[in-house]
Design brief:
By secondary structure, this protein is of the alpha+beta class. The protein has one domain (about 20-75). Helices cover about 40% and strands about 10% of the residues. A two-stranded antiparallel sheet has the order 1-2. α1 packs across α2. The protein is elongated. It starts with 17 loop residues before the first strand and ends in an 11-residue tail after the last helix.
């Protein structure tokens, strides 16, 4: 088998700007911070606002991965 030179050289992530805590959520729906936290382990969640989409978050994550790998966009042959 021939080595074709595949490597993961960088990774990136992005999260929405808006943060919703259990405390804030409990003001919207009939529950409590403690109830949610003990049953799910979740204490905070991120929500995309109207200026964010899957595409904008994916772009941010991609640019972070490219920067981490210290390459340019034209250096990329394939994205998995």
């Amino acid at each position: 088998m021939t080595n074709i030179g595949i490597a993961i050289t960088g990774s990136g992530s992005a999260t929405p700007k808006v943060s919703l805590s259990n405390q804030k959520l409990s003001q919207i729906v009939e529950t409590s911070d403690e109830w949610i936290g003990t049953r799910t382990g979740i204490h905070n969640r991120r929500l995309a606002d109207t200026t964010e989409s899957l595409c904008t978050l994916a772009t941010q994550a991609s640019l972070a991965a490219i920067a981490q790998a210290n390459i340019t966009c034209s250096d990329i042959d394939i994205i998995i």
